[in-house]
Amino acid sequence: MSLKNKHSKINVAVVGLGYWGPNLLRNFLDIKDYKVVYGCDLDKKNLEKYSSIYPSIKFINNFDEIIKDKNVDLVAIATPLSTHFRLAEKALKAGKHVLLEKPMTQNSKEASRLVKLAKRNNKILMVGYTFVYSEPIKKIKEILNKKEIGQIYYYDSTRINLGLIQNDVNVIWDLACHDFSIINYLFNKVPVAIQAFGSKFVNSRNEEIAHVIIKYDKNFTAHINVSWLSPVKIRIILIGGSKKMITFDDISPNEKIRIYNKSVDLESSQITPFKPAYRSGDVIIPYLEQNESLKNELLHLAYCIKNNKKPITSGEEGLKILKMLEASDISLKINKPVMLRH
Ligand SMILES: NC(=O)c1ccc[n+]([C@@H]2O[C@H](COP(=O)([O-])OP(=O)(O)OC[C@H]3O[C@@H](n4cnc5c(N)ncnc54)[C@H](O)[C@@H]3O)[C@@H](O)[C@H]2O)c1
Fold it and tell me: What is the pLDDT of residue 124?
């Protein structure tokens, strides 16, 4: 292993150069903590394309070459889900740190094996739940930490657009998993039960539209609406509280977050038992740093590798999310809520 001290560069291999891998490549190259030594893909066209853009990187189609190279410290895996476990297992066994794209593995058994392997080999295993590192979500966390919102009532997310219909996962695994990671990060609450409703129209294998309802402890509910069959792209999260409410519109170019000083109370002076009082105040649009989420994620990963710290989106966190995804699948099948065991 080449990482000698905190000032050494982390030698990275990026595996999978389809849609997402090149974003990893670009951001790794932009961070001084890293040196990208390999790009790897099975597709020759991708290798040719990126070797002409980045001539200093060695582009190969044989993953085992990376595993054998003692100079590689970190393997970043952005290949299809069905390959995640096999590649990550090999990398961890060879003593590499691993960044594994979401949703980690095909099932919780595999995820659990990777978590144990990383622990045994004292390696960092991070799952690429990028939203958690985005400036808007970091800002919402800051607001929640200040307890300005009061009691949290609900989380309501709409994540819909046309496509990209996936072959290997349903829309919950593709899109709602981001909400699962955001909720876990923001609220630190324990999910009690999950109910999912979904339909398949175009491809009879996987649901293309779905609604997921998650019951948490302390009367908190999350509702997530995901779709690959929407004519418009919408990415809106609403968080309702007893004192204030927050909206996060990820499509808005410069007003992504709004904090509404609005709430509903019961007027105690009223004789009638039910007389709600609606309070409405200022709307605040907080300033957000302009950092790319993926860059924040990779900076956090470098910090964790150099200081032997557990990432926010650790393997354990990825495993928690997988259990929620598996419960959603069972609920889709049996058409009933599924209780989550912890
Ligand atoms: N974090 C995020 O926000 C985010 C966004 C998009 C995709 N992703 C994740 O990234 C992963 C890849 O998604 P994508 O959309 O880029 O897929 P893609 O199909 O566009 O690209 C995958 C690439 O991996 C290559 N590949 C397949 N098997 C390989 C192997 N054994 N060795 C080397 N290369 C191999 C393929 O040739 C292809 O070029 C998925 O897990 C996806 O969920 C994450």
Answer: 98
115-121: which pairs have CB atoms within 8 A and are 24 or more residues apart?
Answer: 115/315, 115/316, 115/318, 115/319, 117/89, 117/92, 117/93, 118/92, 118/315, 121/92, 121/93, 121/95
CATH class of 10-123: alpha beta
Q: 168 CB under 6 A from ligand 1?
A: no
Rounded Cα gap, residues 189 and 192, in angstroms: 9
Determine how β-strand 191-199 pairs with β-strand 152-162.
unpaired
Segments making up each domain of the chain, as ranges: 10-123, 132-290+324-339
8 Å CB contact between 54 and 25: yes
Q: What is the mean pLDDT of each run of 10 residues along the chain (342 residues)?
A: 75 98 98 98 97 96 98 98 98 98 97 98 98 98 95 96 92 97 94 96 91 92 98 98 96 96 76 75 94 98 97 98 97 96 74
Q: Is 297 helix (H, G, I), strand (E, B) or coil?
A: helix
CA distance 164 to 61: 26
Ligand 1 center–CA 200 separation, angstroms:
23
Going from the Cα of 38 to the center of ligand 1, the distance in angstroms, rounded, reads: 16
- Residues whose CB falls within 8 Å of the CB of residue 56, separated by 6 or more in sequence, listed in order: none
Question: Candidates 3.30.70.3450, 3.40.50.720, 3.30.360.10, 3.40.50.300; correct CATH number of 132-290+324-339?
Answer: 3.30.360.10
CB 293 less than 6 A from any atom of ligand 1: no
Rounded CA Rg of the chain:
22
Structural tokens at position 315? 């393997």
Please give the full DSSP string across 29-47, using - where no structure is assigned. Answer: HT-TTEEEEEEE-S-HHHH
